[in-house]
Write a structure and sequence with these properties.
32% helix, three-stranded antiparallel beta sheet, single chain, Immunoglobulin-like, 165 residues, rod-shaped
Length: 165
């Protein structure tokens, strides 16, 4: 009975460690700069599988809603709107977890028409914590090894006690 409680506790703790060690969503743009009208590929990962993804693009000038795939990945394209040249924030939020990540896009002047040089600034959010799956797996294996060792020790002592009585 003690072994079952201990093993269950280890599984719960291991699960909590693995969930806590997962990274926040991440997003990348390709290209990262261009004039209005540029098509930008947006890729991301770490979102809720099949979950809703809200975006505030070009410092909130445009907002879109996308859906992550079954693996929690995002692949889509957006078009740079007619905005002034400058640095723009590109914020992506997992609607389920409210985890937010941000990247930036530099809008350049169009070669056909002059654009004012007003520059918008965006505050960069902290980089997401990197995933360390090897550490998680090692920790889980170590926890299970300790649990089995303790259980075996308890069973041997109980058998010795039973045999001496």
């Amino acid at each position: 009975m003690i072994f079952a409680i201990f093993a269950f506790s280890l599984l719960v703790v291991g699960s909590m460690i693995m969930q806590g060690a997962c990274a926040a969503p991440s997003v990348k743009l390709n290209p990262t700069s261009g004039p209005p009208g540029t098509t930008v590929q947006v890729t991301g990962s770490g979102f809720t599988p099949n979950g809703k993804i809200d975006t505030a693009l070009w410092n909130g000038t445009k907002t879109y809603t996308f859906t992550a795939d079954a693996n929690g990945d995002l692949t889509t394209t957006v078009t740079v709107p007619s905005v002034a040249a400058g640095l723009y924030g590109f914020t992506v939020t997992d609607a389920s977890t409210q985890s937010t990540t941000q990247t930036q896009f530099t809008v350049t002047q169009s070669s056909t028409s002059p654009t004012p040089t007003a520059i918008s600034s965006a505050t960069a959010s902290p980089s997401p914590t990197p995933k360390i799956p090897e550490f998680q797996s090692l920790l889980l294996v170590l926890a299970l090894f300790i649990a089995v060792s303790i259980a075996a020790n308890v069973m041997v002592r109980k058998r010795k006690t039973d045999n001496s009585a």
